[in-house]
Amino acid sequence: MHQARRTTVPAWRASAHRPEQPKQLGSFRLRQIGRTSCSNFLANTFRVLLTAAAYVLMQEMRLHLAATRHARAQVSTLREHFLKLGAQVIVTVRRIVLHLPQAFPYRDNFHRLALSLGAQSG
Predict the structure, then answer these.
(1) With 0-12 CB in 10 A as exposed, 13-18 as middle and 19+ as buried, what is 48?
(2) How far is it, in rounded angstroms, from Cα 87 to Cα 51?
(3) Which of 2-6, 16-20, 104-108 has the lowest average pLDDT?
(4) pLDDT digit string (tens) for 17-54?
(5) Which of 28, 46, 57, 67 is deepest in the core (most CB within 10 A)?
(6) Domain extent for 56
(7) Is residue 4 domain-resident?
(8) Is residue 7, in this structure, part of any structural domain at all?
(9) Residue 121 within a domain
């Protein structure tokens, strides 16, 4: 008599609506969230809160960049292309204006992202 052979399927594969979650979590290093460096509970809680907020920010950026080549970009790529950039910042009472360099290669995608997040063009 043949015994049924069991195959183990990772839990993330069983979830059809989020097949790429482990890659995203791995790139963001959320599995290290339990390794907090401070012995103070409130400091560790704040650190975990900031990590979760950064994760949500990256997911929102991916969502709003769905029509671009950055839709499936890793966290490090999104950070390098859209968060770590040199810009002239002008702050007034009514608005904050960013002047990006003319040579900025992701200018169109940045503009699209900013508009989809509620920025006003002008």
Answers:
(1) middle
(2) 25
(3) 16-20
(4) 544 555 555 555 555 555 667 778 888 888 889 888 98
(5) 28
(6) 18-116
(7) no
(8) no
(9) no
Q: How far is CA 65 from CA 10, 21, 22, 105, in A?
A: 29, 17, 20, 15
Question: Residue 23, Cβ neighbours under 10 Å: how many?
Answer: 12
What are 48-83's pLDDT values in tens digits? 898 889 888 888 888 888 888 888 888 888 889 888
Q: Which residue has the tokens 């950064």?
A: 54
pLDDT (0 to 100) of residue 92: 92
Residue 112 belongs to some domain of the structure: yes
Backbone CA torsion sign across 37, 42, 45, 50: negative
Token digits for 31? 């599995």
Tell me how crowded residue 110 is: count the other CB atoms within 10 A of its CB: 20
Please give the model's pTM, rounded to 2 decimal places.
0.59
Res 12: pLDDT: 46
